[in-house]
């Protein structure tokens, strides 16, 4: 009897093959349907966009702008790659085109801005200058590409650039001929030449190259930037153009035509610059240059004419509207400070007890942590309410918004992890991130809105506050029900507290103990055992109880906190999403090992999960700090800086554009930049170390 050999068909194998084939066909069919649906959706979107472009001028203009911008960027990128493809085997062509493009750019700058004669009067006149510049520079590039003798190259380069400088000086229009400030010219030339030398040596380039290019740039900055434009003559215009031209010509003439290996290295290195160049150009034009100019303007007077040094910065810190510590001693008598100190004393007692039990007074998951953090926050609130000013407000924003947005985001991420309805809950909490800060500010203005007590309150906050006042001063069934609920709450807290104390788990008694203090105070006030009630009411001289609203955005200093709530409301969603992703990325092996060792859920979170996501928490914190330091929209929309709610960004806007004090506004902008810079540097270095 012969068993199944190699050629014998296997029924099971046939069934598996058929099932696999069916699955593959099903998958292909599904992907085909998805692809068809995506194409249909794209077609509908394009048709709708085309229809809007036909009927709406703004949409049409936006589409044209986007199309032109994308086409130009793509054209420049493709053209740069094609140009540098010529480096290895067609050096003469590359050098000619490269110099022609430089001449074209110079012509666009001079002729396009109307600086030279004949630069007005139509399209042909506008194109003529760049065209002549491109031809002149292109011819020079070709001659240099075919000439290898160093002496003749030097003569050719210096002579050609000198001639170009003379022509530019002669063509410069009369109203742009400079009256020279020789001191500024010499200082700028020497300073920038020194900087150029340092940069060249830093990148291991010949120092002469950096010195010549730096001197040329410094001459232009000093000669033209410090000049009385229009107060010169043809001679000063020629001199201003010839000197940098000669320096550039000397630098170009000292170079040589590269051999094949050098051209190969140039081709390879150029690709990196082609990819990085647009980004670096954008950063330089939109960030670096404006920052340098802002720093320069901060050293000038309000009209950006006279140099005043650090006077604008001094005015900022001596102005009581920005920095007022005259009543700092009031913090010691403020309620937040007293509450904070009390909680810190409790934290100290708990810390001493924990030191005896575990050897550490404070550590993650330790009962000392919560009262320590809470006490610190209350003390900060007491200090910020006593010390006033724009800078103090910014510090208050940083402490409050950063802590609450990060802490609440982390709490939600932990509590929602793996629970039913997690996606829906997180989507709702993240939804405010879709709003602009202006839109969110308008929404919360309605929430905080206050009306006369004779009218019904339309603001949610005041409606609830007055409703609570009516309950606490009333005598009906609703008042009784709320009192019973508060009593039940206190009983539950007391139960947890007593159980912890009986078991000598003093650490677990901390939270119930603190909650009991606040819940007990609320119960005593609500039931009028102590005080006359709680909520939005006041008692008149006749003994009548009437409603009393809170002007959330105008009552200083706590109106600042109500503005912070808006940003916290928005940023909690951001923190939650980032931290939730980090929590899900924690290796399950670590969590399972901790549970096998007998760790509770709380211990797993504090001892395993939290250390694993520490880096992510740092990123979230630094991101929120950067956002808060430059907060502007919320204050601008809700109070416009009135009622002691001013912050640096809004103050900068008002100084620069309303009061027209350019120097002071620039100084405030630099303060924002300086305050954000250390946080950014810390974050970047931390990420680099991890990579």
Labels describing this entry:
two-stranded antiparallel sheet; 691 residues; disordered N terminus; 25 helices; mainly alpha
Strand order of the largest sheet: 1-2
Helical content (DSSP H or I, runs of 4+): over 70%
Radius of gyration: 36 Å
**Largest β sheet strand count, sense and barrel closure:** 2 strands, antiparallel
Strand content: under 5%
Order of helices and strands: HHHHHEHHEHHHHHHHHHHHEEHHHHHHH
User: Could you list the spans in which at least 5 consecutive residues all have pLDDT below 50?
Assistant: 1-8
Number of distinct helices? 25
Spatial separation of the terminal alpha carbons: 66 Å
Overall shape: it is: elongated
Overview of the structural elements:
This protein has 691 residues and is mainly alpha-helical. Among the domains are: 174-257, no CATH class; 329-386. Helix content is 73%, strand content 1%. It contains 25 helices and four strands. The chain has helices at 11-55, 57-84, 91-112, 123-146, 150-171, 182-202, 207-225, 234-253, 260-297, 311-318, 335-358, 369-386, 390-416, 422-430, 437-447, 460-473, 477-502, 510-526, 559-584, 588-596, 601-612, 614-629, 633-638, 648-658, 662-690; strands spanning 178-179, 228-229, 537-539, 545-547. The strands form two sheets. The chain has a two-stranded antiparallel sheet. It is elongated. Residues 1-8 have low confidence and may be disordered.
């Amino acid at each position: 009897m012969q068993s199944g050999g190699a050629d014998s068909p296997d029924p099971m194998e046939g069934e598996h093959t058929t099932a696999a084939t069916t699955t593959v066909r099903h998958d292909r069919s599904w992907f085909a349907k998805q692809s068809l649906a995506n194409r249909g959706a794209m077609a509908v979107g394009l048709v709708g966009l085309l229809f809007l472009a036909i009927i709406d001028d703004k949409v049409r203009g936006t589409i044209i702008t986007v199309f032109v911008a994308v086409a130009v960027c793509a054209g420049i990128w493709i053209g740069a790659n094609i140009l540098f493809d010529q480096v290895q085997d067609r050096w003469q062509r590359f050098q000619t085109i490269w110099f022609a493009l430089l001449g074209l750019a110079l012509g666009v700058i001079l002729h396009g801005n109307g600086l030279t004669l004949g630069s007005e009067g139509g399209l042909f006149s506008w194109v003529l200058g760049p065209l002549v510049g491109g031809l002149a520079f292109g011819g020079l590039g070709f001659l240099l590409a075919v000439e290898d003798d160093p002496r003749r190259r030097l003569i050719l380069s210096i002579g050609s650039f000198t001639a170009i400088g003379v022509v530019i000086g002669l063509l410069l229009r009369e109203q742009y001929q400079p009256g020279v400030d020789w001191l500024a010219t010499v200082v700028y030339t020497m300073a920038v030449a020194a900087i150029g030398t340092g940069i060249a040596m830093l990148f291991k380039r010949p120092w002469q190259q950096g010195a010549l290019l730096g001197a040329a740039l410094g001459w232009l900055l000093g000669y033209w930037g410090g000049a009385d434009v229009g107060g010169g003559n043809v001679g000063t215009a020629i001199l201003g153009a010839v000197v940098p031209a000669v320096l550039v010509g000397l630098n170009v003439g000292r170079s040589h035509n590269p051999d094949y290996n050098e051209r190969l290295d140039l081709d390879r290195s150029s690709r990196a610059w082609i990819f990085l160049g647009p980004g670096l150009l954008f950063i330089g034009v939109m960030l670096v240059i404006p920052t340098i100019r802002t720093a320069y303007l901060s050293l000038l007077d309000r009209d950006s004419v006279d140099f005043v040094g650090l006077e604008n910065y001094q005015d900022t810190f001596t102005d009581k509207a920005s920095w007022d510590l005259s009543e700092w001693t009031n913090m010691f008598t403020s309620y937040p400070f007293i509450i904070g100190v009390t909680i810190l004393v409790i934290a100290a007692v708990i810390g001493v007890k924990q030191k005896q039990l575990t050897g550490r007074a404070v550590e993650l998951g330790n009962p000392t942590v919560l009262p320590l953090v809470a006490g610190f926050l209350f003390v900060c609130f007491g200090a910020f309410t006593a010390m006033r000013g724009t800078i103090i407000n910014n510090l208050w924003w940083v402490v409050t918004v950063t802590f609450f947005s990060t802490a609440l985001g982390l709490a939600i991420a932990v509590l929602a992890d793996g629970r039913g309805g997690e996606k829906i809950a997180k989507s709702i909490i993240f939804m405010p991130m879709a709003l602009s800060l202006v839109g969110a500010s308008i929404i919360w203005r309605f929430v905080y809105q206050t009306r006369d007590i004779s009218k019904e309150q339309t603001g949610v906050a005041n409606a609830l506050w007055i409703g609570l006042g009516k309950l606490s001063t009333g005598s009906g069934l609703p008042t009784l029900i709320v009192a019973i609920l508060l009593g039940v709450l206190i009983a539950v807290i007391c139960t947890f507290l007593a159980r912890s104390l009986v078991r000598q788990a003093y650490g677990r008694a901390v939270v119930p103990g603190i909650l009991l203090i606040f819940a007990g105070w609320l119960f005593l006030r609500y039931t009028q055992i102590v005080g006359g009630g709680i909520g939005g009411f006041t008692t008149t001289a006749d003994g009548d109880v009437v409603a009393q609203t809170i002007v959330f955005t105008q009552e200083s200093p706590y109106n600042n906190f109500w503005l912070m709530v808006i940003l916290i409301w928005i940023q909690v969603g951001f923190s939650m999403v980032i931290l939730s992703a980090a929590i899900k990325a924690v290796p399950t092996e670590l969590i399972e090992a901790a549970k096998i060792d007998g760790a509770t859920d709380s211990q797993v979170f504090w001892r395993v999960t939290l250390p694993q996501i520490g880096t992510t928490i740092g990123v979230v914190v630094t991101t929120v700090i950067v956002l808060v330091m430059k907060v502007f929209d919320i204050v601008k929309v809700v109070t416009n800086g009135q009622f002691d709610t001013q912050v640096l960004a809004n103050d900068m806007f008002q100084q620069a554009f309303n009061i027209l004090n350019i120097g002071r506004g620039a100084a405030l902008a630099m303060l924002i930049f300086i305050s954000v810079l250390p946080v950014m540097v810390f974050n970047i270095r931390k990420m680099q170390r991890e990579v």
